[in-house]
Design brief:
With 125 residues, this protein is mainly α. The protein has one domain: DksA, coiled-coil domain (Four Helix Bundle (Hemerythrin (Met), subunit A)). It is 74% helix and 0% strand. Helix 1 packs antiparallel against helix 2. The longest helix has 37 residues. It is elongated. The structure holds zinc ion (ZN).
Length: 125
């Protein structure tokens, strides 16, 4: 993939992720405000509180993922500037165009990505 189209893809991806992050920020603020309002009301049902905590954790999980993806896109843009874009960080081989089409911020080739994911699952939490 040539640098220009890679950059365009990454910029578009960054814009999209920033949009999602902004939306998620509002969502979390909304939940916090709702919680403060509810603290003053006494007829609260415990089951509702439980599901709200669950919802909130799910939102925070999404935000964490968005932030991580944003980091990856930004570091891919830096690699593009350094001329290291599209090269696997583990084995140094070029990452295939097909893979970069699907995941423009990819840091590893398919083989190393699979290896790393297996390793991450084996590692204790
Ligand atoms: Zn590799």
């Amino acid at each position: 993939m040539d640098r220009e189209s890679a950059r365009q893809r990454l910029e578009a991806e960054r814009a999209r992720l920033e949009e999602v992050r902004r939306a998620a920020d509002h969502l979390v603020e909304g939940v916090e405000q709702a919680e403060q309002t509810e603290l003053s009301s006494l007829d609260q049902h415990p089951a509702d509180v439980g599901s709200e905590v669950f919802e909130r954790e799910r939102d925070l999980g999404v935000m964490q993922q968005v932030r991580q993806e944003l980091d990856e896109v930004q570091s891919a843009l830096r690699r593009l500037d350094d001329g290291r874009y599209g090269v696997c960080e583990v084995c140094g081989r070029p990452i295939s165009d097909e893979r970069l089409e699907v995941k423009p911020a990819a840091r590893y080739c398919v083989d190393d990505q699979a290896r790393l994911e297996r390793g991450a699952r084996l590692r204790p939490q």
